[in-house]
Amino acid sequence: MSVRLDHGDDELTDIHEINVTPFIDVILVLLIIFMIAAPLATVDVNVNLPGLTADPQKRPDKPIFLTIKADHSLALGDNPVSREELASALVAQTNGDKGQPIFLRADKSLPYGDFAEVINLLRRSGYLKVALVGLEVSEKP
Fold this sequence. Notes:
By secondary structure, this protein is of the alpha/beta class. The chain has helices at 21-40, 86-94, 112-125; strands spanning 51-52, 64-68, 74-76, 79-81, 102-106, 130-132, 135-136.
């Protein structure tokens, strides 16, 4: 026994409804992605700057080290130097070559503002090539 369900009309009619289910699925997936990605974009990350895992670069034969100690004092090589005398001491050490890189070492406990102040002193003195020195840390597997 068979039953005919189409009432004998062979024409197909247009359906004027929009299927919004795929659109809602895409919107929900994007919402979930943004909910996960937004907390990752914040800047509240504790950073320990002194450890470096980069490959060591070749140093010049006689590098010039400027050290900022924990008590905020400066030392050029092994000799202590005041902030006012830093420019003249650098000129004497580099023989006036302001293109020579200065290797800057800073104590781990030093506030970032004091570190930036010394970099500004170097820039005002004309020494723009500053290399930051840190401890070599092997990467953990």
